[in-house]
Amino acid sequence: MKFAPNLTFLRYFYSAGQSKSISKAAKEHFVSQSAISQAISKLEASLNKQLISHEKNRFQLTAEGLI
Fold first, then answer.
1. How many CB atoms lie within 10 A of CB 41?
2. How far is CA 7 from CA 1, 23, 58, in A?
3. Fewer CB atoms inside 10 Å of the end CB: C or N, the chain?
4. Maximal CA-CA distance, the chain
5. Backbone phi, then psi, for 52, in 5-degree steps?
6. DSSP character at residue 61
């Protein structure tokens, strides 16, 4: 299912990318880690791009995520 990207998803992704941490982004925005992860997943689905590498306990931007 496709979702239209919204500013909240972009803010969460930007914050996680800057801090290199989903948990730090969650604390910054006063939401759960799950909310950040779900927003990034929806953003990836709407753009049809993988923005982060999905590995347990590791956050890393992909080349497309860096752009």
1. 15
2. 19, 19, 25
3. N
4. 29
5. -130, 155
6. E
